[in-house]
Amino acid sequence: MLPEDGVPQGIRPVGAAGAEDVRSQDKTPDTDTATSAEAAEPSATGTGPADGGAGAGSGPDPGPGPDPGPSGSPNSPAPAAPSGSASQNRWWIYRGSGQPLYDTTLRELLPDPPPWRRFTGGPVVPPPPADDDEVARRLGRPSRRSPASEQLRREADMVNAALLLRRPLLVTGRPGTGKSSLAYRISRELRLGRVLRWHITSRTTLRSGLYEYDAIGRVQDSAALRALRTAEDSPAAPRTADGTAAADEQLPGIGDYVQLGPLGTALLPYETPRVLLIDELDKSDQDLANDLLSVFEEGQFPVSELLRARRRHPRVTVLTDDPEGAAEIVGGVVRCRAFPIVVITSNGEREFPPAFLRRCLRLHMPDPDRTQLVDMVTAHLAEGAATRAGDGGDLIERFLRRSRERGGLAIDQLLNSVYLTTSGRLPADAGALDELVDALWHRLDGAGAESRPG
Question: What DSSP letter does each residue of 400-418 carry, written as one string?
């Protein structure tokens, strides 16, 4: 089963029928016992720390519980977490269940950081907006995932370690295995709002992720304003009702020309961490990984243009990477308060410097198995879509077999084929279906359908 805690109600959804079962089997130890148990690493048999000794697969399966509301919404009210050490010292903050926290928040569950990872930036900025549409587009609707495999348990372990240590998580694996989706799963389950995505190319620089300053735009606006003011002296210049010049306006402040990038926005002083996805870092210039080291260690960065003007403008409001977002910067330096949850993906096209790897936790994402594929199909399509897709010879099994033959296929290739197969629009000709599916399941290395095995 998925990692569970056996903690009092309010930490995880419990259905009406399962509430008594959970209470009757709750054997949460006292404060001292719980503290020592939580320090131990969960055993490979699935026993979670603070689960009263019940294996992760032996406890009652919690029901769906009340509707958690819009996924990822950080502004929805949440009652206080239950008192006691069970909620404060638990290991399974992130469980990978696919279900959002419904009556508590990450701020209530997350303990203080290690002393060397403590940051005190300010002033505190408002929580980020929700982005339910984007999360649903990438993950489908919220649904409870099937009993966990060892890989899903390891995934949850590494995410929780990254949460507690305030360290980036480097996710490796071949293309199409769902590495980027992990950031959206974390945001949905912990209700952290919009995911900040920084897509990396060979031309990406650290500066582009931190902020951009539109110097040309400011010069152009300044020149246009001077031209309007020069025209004020003309008798033909337009006047308002009180006789003043219509061109009597001020140049926007410097903050209107500064926009923080995804990395810069993630380092703003939020009360709870933002989720930052740094996608395909292995496509970057070799220096970018080294450039990130200082930012990850210090949790802050200067905005040079604001630093030079800090005497005249000690507090400046700038634009952020969020839609219609703005934040105040004090003294020309952005300082984080809660270190962001950084998910870095890599397709393994090149190695990273040892100093960079030392500061990251590493998680390898293997190819999903049949159970995980069924969960993904069910989340994105209607209930029973995976079963209906199997009527023609078990499409998922054929996909797994073809993926092994062709060196790995992407998950969206399966979703495309299941969508077409279950749409009811394809001809009943089995040969035509096989040909279409084969075209959809082309090799990721560029080879086409002509490589179809005989």
Answer: HHHHHHTT---HHHHHHHH
Whether the Cβ atoms of residue 366 and residue 300 lie closer than 8 Å to each other: no
Question: What tens digit of pLDDT does each residue of 58-83 get?
Answer: 333 333 444 444 444 444 443 343 44
Please tell me the pTM assigned to this model. Answer: 0.75
Kindly state the DSSP code that residue 47 receives in the 8-state scheme. B
- What are 326's two structure tokens? 């703005």
Answer whether the bond into residue 123 is a cis peptide, omega within 30°.
yes
Strands (E), 47-191: 169-172
In this predicted structure, the answer to whether residue 365 has a pLDDT above a threshold of 60 is yes
Q: Among residues 77, 100, 82, 89, which one has the least CA distance to residue 34? A: 89
What's the CA gap between 321 and 198, in Å, rounded? 10
Which DSSP string corresponds to 310-323? TTT-SEEEEE-SST
> Cα(377)–Cα(214) distance, rounded to whole angstroms?
44
At CA 60, angle to CA 56 and CA 63, rounded to 5?
115
How far apart CA 355 and CA 142 sit, in angstroms, is 38
CA 308 to chain centre: 34
Quote the CA–CA distance of 144 and 301 in Å, as a whole number: 40
Distances (CA, A) of 415 to 89, 96, 303, 382: 39, 21, 44, 12
In angstroms, the CA 390 to CA 373 distance is 13
d(CA 140, CA 147): 19
